[in-house]
Fold this sequence. Notes:
Layout: H1 29-40, H2 49-72, H3 78-98, H4 103-107, H5 109-128, E1 133-135, E2 138-140
Antiparallel strand pairs: 1-2
Helix pairs in contact: 1-5, 2-3, 2-5
Amino acid sequence: xxxxxxxxxxxxxxxxxxxxxxxxxxxxxxxxxxxxxxxxxxxxxxxxxxxxxxxxxxxxxxxxxxxxxxxxxxxxxxxxxxxxxxxxxxxxxxxxxxxxxxxxxxxxxxxxxxxxxxxxxxxxxxxxxxxxxxxxxxxxxxx
Length: 143
């Protein structure tokens, strides 16, 4: 579409292309782990980024499970204890409905985030040890 302030006069836009394409990159947990490990050291698993991401993801997506558990046993008030978890799961359920994803992924979202953080830490230490990652027959050498 035309854009007066964009290079060459044209801009871009973000759209929901869900009806146009479908893609499944991984068939098993092992493939997921290896596939994400391949890119982890270039993404979050850096000396500066990893503590920040661990804190943000841990507080925002994993801690609510713990506070809900504490609320269940009466150690914290129910509204804050269950409220954060309900907000996270509710948001994921809305995204799941919108993008026609698997409902189990929404319900296990905090566990998935905890696994992502664990994967990033493992990738961080493997990169520091100079270990290579292989995925789909290709080998990745961390920098």
